C-alpha cells in the first residue's frame, strides 16, 4: 500500500506531503499491529472529514509504513533516527573470551575428537548455571539458564561428565533446578521443519549448546555453502528468543607428522560455516599436551583475545581418584613449555639410540676420525655431538696429526676397551 492509495494527487499537494517531513510528530504506540492499523485508518478518516490536510498527510505516510511493515514481516528497516540512537554496551557471557551474549549469530567451537571441546564447553555451561568461574579462571556474573542439546554423546556419558565437573567444583547438580538442562539425543534437525521445536528449547534460556553441527544436519553437505542456512536459522531464532547458540563442529586433522596450527582454515567444511558465526574458537591438541584454544574471529567484540591453553586433571573425591575433573585455563606459554619439554625428551631418547651406533663404529675402527664417524653412523654434527655427550667417558677423543684441518680420533674408553679385550 502507498500514500497514493490513500490520497489523490490534489489531496497530497494540499497536505504538503511532498515538501515537508511526513514523520514529524509520529509517536510509538504500545498496541498490536492490527489495532494500530485500525486506529490509523479511523484517525485518517476523521482528519480527512475535518480537512486537516497536514494531519492527513502525516497519517497517510504512517499508515503506509505500518501496512508495508505488516505485509513484509521478514524485513526490519532502520531509519535515520533509529540509527542515530546510542547503541547499548555489549553484554557478555565471558568478556575475557569475547563471548557475547544476547540475540545474534551463533558462536562456534571447532576441533577434532581428542581436543575435548565438548568436555570444556560442559564446564562452561556449568559455570554459567552456577555463576562460577569458566575454566577455573573467568567470572560469569549472575547464574544463567542454559541448555545442552546433545546429539553426539548420549545421556549416560554427558551426565557422568557433568557429575565429575560438579564434584570438582563442590556443586550439587540437584540444587541447580532447571538452570542447566540436557536434551539427550532429540530427534531434531537444523531445518525449518523443526524450527518451532528449536525455538521452544531456546525460550527462556541464555545459551544453547548444540553438539554438533554435523549431527544436527544429517545428509547435508558441509562443503557446500548451503550449510550456512542451518546457522542462519539459529541466528534468527536467537533474535526471537534472546538465547544465543554455541555450536560444536569438527576440524580437519593435520597430515601425519604435521602439527595442527589451530587457524580458521583448520575448520572442516565450507568457509560459509566460519562466515555465518559471530565468535569462532579453534581447539587443538597433541598427545600429552595441554589443549590450545585460539579465537580466530570475534565479530561483535571486534578484537580477538589472546590464545590460551586448557589443563584437564582428575580430582579425588571420597577416595575415588577420578571422582571429579577440573578444567583450568592457563597462558599459552604453558603449551610452549610443554612442547619444549617434550622435544627435550625426544632428543634425549634419540641421542641414546645414536650413542650405540657411535660406540659400535669406534669399536670397529679404533682411532676413527670425526668425518669418518659421521659417515659410518649417518649422523650430522649436532646429533653426533649429542650421542658423544651421552657416552661421556666411555669414549676418548685425541687430537691427531695437524694438517690443513686438525683431525680428531675416537677410541673406546678404558672400561669399554678392557671389556672388548
Features:
421 residues, alpha/beta, nine-stranded mixed beta sheet, 14 helices, 20% strand
Largest sheet: 9 strands, mixed
Overall geometry comes to elongated
Number of β-strand runs: 16
Structural class: alpha/beta
Instruction: Give the SSE string.
Output: HHHHEEEHEEEHEHEHHEHEEEEHEHHEEH
Strands of the widest sheet, in order across it, are 7-6-8-9-3-10-11-12-13
Provide the gyration radius in Å: 34 Å
N-to-C CA distance: 109 Å
Q: What low-confidence regions span 5 or more consecutive residues with pLDDT below 50? A: 1-31
Approximate helicity band: 25-40%
Instruction: Count up the helices.
Output: 14
Beta-strand percent range: 15-25%
What value does the average pLDDT take?
84
Short description:
The chain contains 14 helices and 16 strands.
Overall description:
The protein is α/β, with parallel strands linked by helices and 421 residues long. It is 40% helix and 20% strand. The chain has 14 helices and 16 strands. It has helices at 9-15, 33-49, 53-71, 80-84, 117-130, 155-169, 195-202, 213-216, 228-241, 271-275, 332-364, 370-377, 381-391, 414-420, and strands at 92-94, 99-100, 107-111, 133-134, 138-139, 146-150, 180-184, 207-211, 244-250, 279-284, 291-298, 308-317, 320-331, 368-369, 395-399, 408-412. The longest helix is centred in the last third of the chain and has 33 residues, at 332-364.
Amino acid at each position: 500500500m502507498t500514500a497514493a492509495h490513500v490520497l489523490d494527487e490534489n489531496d497530497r499537494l494540499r497536505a504538503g506531503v511532498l515538501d515537508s517531513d511526513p514523520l514529524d510528530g509520529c509517536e510509538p504506540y504500545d498496541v498490536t499491529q492490527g489495532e494500530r492499523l485500525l486506529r490509523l485508518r479511523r484517525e485518517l478518516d476523521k482528519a480527512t472529514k475535518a480537512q486537516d490536510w497536514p494531519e492527513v498527510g502525516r497519517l497517510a505516510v504512517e499508515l503506509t509504513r505500518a501496512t508495508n511493515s505488516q505485509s513484509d514481516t521478514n524485513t526490519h528497516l532502520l531509519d535515520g533516527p533509529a540509527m542515530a540512537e546510542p547503541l547499548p554496551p555489549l553484554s557478555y557471557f565471558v568478556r575475557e573470551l569475547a563471548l557475547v551474549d544476547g540475540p545474534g549469530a551463533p558462536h562456534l567451537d571447532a576441533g577434532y575428537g581428542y581436543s575435548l571441546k565438548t568436555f570444556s564447553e560442559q564446564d562452561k555451561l556449568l559455570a554459567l548455571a552456577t555463576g562460577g568461574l569458566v575454566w577455573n579462571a573467568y567470572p560469569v556474573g549472575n547464574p544463567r539458564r542454559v541448555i545442552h542439546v546433545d546429539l553426539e554423546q548420549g545421556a549416560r556419558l554427558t551426565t557422568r561428565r557433568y557429575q565429575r565437573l560438579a564434584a570438582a567444583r563442590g556443586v550439587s547438580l540437584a540444587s541447580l533446578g532447571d538452570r542447566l538442562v540436557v536434551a539427550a539425543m532429540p530427534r531434531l534437525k537444523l531445518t525449518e521443519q523443526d524450527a518451532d521445536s528449536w525455538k521452544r528449547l531456546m525460550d527462556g534460556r541464555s545459551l544453547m549448546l548444540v553438539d554438533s553441527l554435523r549431527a544436527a544436519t544429517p545428509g547435508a553437505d558441509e562443503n557446500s555453502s548451503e550449510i550456512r542456512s542451518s546457522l542462519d536459522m539459529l541466528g534468527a531464532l536467537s533474535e526471537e528468543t534472546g538465547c544465543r547458540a554455541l555450536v560444536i563442529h569438527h576440524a580437519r586433522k593435520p597430515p601425519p607428522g604435521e602439527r595442527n596450527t589451530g587457524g580458521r582454515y583448520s575448520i572442516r567444511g565450507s568457509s560459509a560455516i566460519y562466515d555465518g558465526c559471530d565468535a569462532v574458537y579453534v581447539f587443538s591438541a597433541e598427545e600429552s599436551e595441554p589443549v590450545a584454544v585460539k579465537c580466530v574471529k570475534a565479530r561483535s567484540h571486534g578484537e580477538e583475545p589472546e590464545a590460551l591453553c586448557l589443563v584437564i586433571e582428575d580430582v579425588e573425591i571420597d577416595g575415588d581418584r577420578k571422582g571429579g575433573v577440573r578444567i583450568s585455563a592457563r597462558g599459552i606459554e604453558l603449551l610452549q613449555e610443554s612442547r619444549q619439554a617434550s622435544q627435550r625428551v625426544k632428543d634425549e631418547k634419540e641421542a641414546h639410540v645414536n650413542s650405540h651406533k657411535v660406540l659400535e663404529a669406534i669399536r670397529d675402527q679404533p682411532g676413527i676420525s670425526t668425518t669418518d664417524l659421521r659417515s659410518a653412523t649417518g649422523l650430522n654434527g649436532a646429533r653426533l655431538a649429542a650421542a658423544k655427550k651421552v657416552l661421556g667417558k666411555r669414549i676418548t677423543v685425541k687430537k691427531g696429526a695437524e694438517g690443513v684441518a686438525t683431525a680428531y680420533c675416537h677410541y673406546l674408553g678404558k672400561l669399554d676397551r678392557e671389556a672388548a679385550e
